[in-house]
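Researcher: We're reviewing a set of sequences before deciding which ones to prioritize for further study. For each one, I'd like a predicted 3D structure that I can look through quickly. This is Acetolactate synthase. If possible, include the structure in token form so it fits the rest of the review sheet.
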Amino acid sequence: MADVLEATTQAPVEAKAPQMTDGFHLVIDALKLNDIDTIFGLVGIPITDLARLAQAEGMRFIGFRHEQHAGNAAAIAGYMTQKPGICLTVSAPGFLNGLTALANATTNCFPMILISGSSEREIVDLQQGDYEEMDQLNAAKPYAKAAYRVLHAEDIGVGIARAIRAAVSGRPGGVYLDLPAKLLSQTMDALKGQQSLIKVVDAAPRQLPSPDSVKRALDVMKSAKRPLILLGKGAAYAQADAQIRELVEKSGIPYLPMSMAKGLLPDTHAQSASAARSFVLQEADCVMLIGARLNWLLAHGKGKTWGAAPKQFVQIDISPTEIDSNVAIAAPVIGDIGSCVSALVAGIDANFPKPSGEWTGAINERKNKNLEKMAATLAKNPSPMNFHSALRAIRDVLKTRPDINVVNEGANTLDYARSIIDMYEPRKRFDSGTWGIMGIGMGFSIGAAVTSGQQVVAIEGDSAFGFSGMELETICRYDLPVCTIVFNNNGVYRGTDVNPTGGKDVAPTVFVKNARYDKMIEAFGGIGFNATTPEELTHALQEAIKSGKPTLINAVIDEAAGTESGRLTNLNPQSAAMKK
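Model: Here's the predicted structure for Acetolactate synthase, in token form for your review sheet.
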């Protein structure tokens, strides 16, 4: 009886309080669950603690000086890995800065997710003047492949899963994910929170082409007398390198790579028609497009760029709505590039006709003529340096290191480097892309260095460098192996323009004369070089690569070197008017 009384008088055992989690941790856990380990961004209200906690949980946070460059880094990371790069920004102005990179990623089909904190919906919707009040979701929609907002902590897993799948499936692109400040501090049961997270399965499933479309494409190519394969950056993104090489070599068809497809096959490959670009575009009677669009970079598939003779186009694309966007496509092949190219390779048998010796011989004749002409130009050694002599020095160094990532932007700097610097490995060249925009340089360089862990050489016009030059501090802060080469000719296009009024203000295209960009990186603890001759440039680049440290070479070139708008004078209204 005493035992019974003792049992009934014992104090009741207190129930353990449930373990809780919050929106901050759920965002981080959802990203990590999907093998995303790096965030590019810039902290501030309301996402500073999200960045701190991400780092504490083992993720890498790369902090920038401007959100646009963080977004560009995320975009190029997505292009390199086929996983969406993540850019994290604050609300309103920070979001808008990141939106430029998001729009560029969508245009170029780079998978990235812009995650931005935002003001509270109930205040924004009533326009009551909240801190950095802005309807960010609707602002993002026209410039993103998809846009989502998460309002409840239990939906964070779904929101991130949907963003990942949207970014990489089908035609890749930029996705916006809106996280109001109140969401991040919401709490819920930790176990239920973990159960709400989603690991995305088969985010970008293969899309097999129909057998009829493959047969039609092969029949069109068989009938061609002067066939050409044109490789776009989508072909490089697909990582179907072996299949594409087999298609080119098994068919014997000459190929032409767009700038970011350079290196899919080495630029020195016997079938490369890069040195005869204008000739093959005009003379080919059948062109197979692989991961390339007939946009302005290809004169929309018509006009004098393509010659007078009618052409048939075969187009491999994952998006059926891209077909017939500018000209009629005789043989569309819809599906992922790897599957489509593999199907075409399987259909090339012993009876598939090789291109005629007349066609390949004409290409080689034009190639050799142009290469000899270029070699003569590159052999000159003017003083001061011009674009050609400086790029010759860079070309000869990079030839010994095909593993180096090359970032390239500018007007003349981009145009000349694209044709002079050979690439030997895929996804090693990153440039202004479909929009032809300036300002991608340092963002792409940081993204490429962080993603690959390998050396980056950024070849920059002095104007283009100005858009993102402050990110030198970011490069130094994270001790990244980035060598920036600034082609310094004292201005936009060139530094010789004058104010026609004779007034105090310099001409709109002129910068500070004899600027020393190398001193900028020294201010942040990096290594600077000043090069005025090809020999000095060669030595500086070799030393920069050897060091593996943040470096900048101020490459002084003739201020009269350069042409208005590079090779895009036809898009410049004044230049076009002067030609008439």
